[in-house]
Amino acid sequence: QDIEQQLGSLILATDINRQNEFLIRLKSHLDNQDLRLEDARDRHFMLQIALKCADICNPCRLWELSKQWSERVCEEFYRQGDLEQKFELEISPLCNQQKDTIPSIQIGFMTYIVEPLFERWAQFTGDTPLSENMLNHLRRNKAKWRSLLHKQHSSSRSNDHSGQVTGSQEQTLNEEETP
Q: Which stretches are tagged as biased composition: Polar residues (predicted)?
């Protein structure tokens, strides 16, 4: 029963609505340097943080893989928005493909959810090569999404608001490799 409860707690920790609660608690522990991994509660808390990191780590991967999964997730959001519209319901945030582009969704996700958590994770792990690599991918991917967003905004000839990256945009993006 104890294992069931702990597993349930780990799974519930991935709820995005509790992101700030966990982030504030982690920041407090790191600032106060009072995490004691010999304490079962602190170990469990760090397992929750590790699972949260695993759950949202897509932006910390290589661009091609991260982009592919980002597009898939956003397509799922858009299908939900289409169904909500069909049944004359209010369209949920991030689910309106007429106004929520994939680059804008990804930039917000990275800025407000992923970056703060992974910066604290790197602080906890002592800036390991893995943490640094993940943060570097995150920063490069965020720059690429920003570049795509800028191209979408400056492209008046395109009526496609899906946020999909066109072949020419992808080629230009690869040629402009960001640091």
A: 155-172
Q: Identify the H or E element spanning 172.
A: helix 167-175
Alpha helices for 59-101 (secondary structure H): 63-86
Determine the structural domain holding residue 75 and report its residue range.
Answer: 57-152
Residues 46 and 62 in one domain: no
CA 56 to chain centre: 5
Query: Would residue 164 count as lying in a domain?
Result: no
Taking phi first (over 0 means left), then psi (-120 to 50 degrees means alpha), and beta for anything else, what does residue 133 get? alpha
Looking at the fold, whether 126 and 72 belong to one and the same domain comes out as yes
The two three-digit tokens of residue 121, written as one number: 């994770």
Residue 154: which pLDDT band, with cuts at 50, 70 and 90?
confident
pTM: 0.84
Q: What is the per-residue pLDDT for 156?
A: 40
In the predicted structure, residue 21 carries a pLDDT above the cut 70? yes
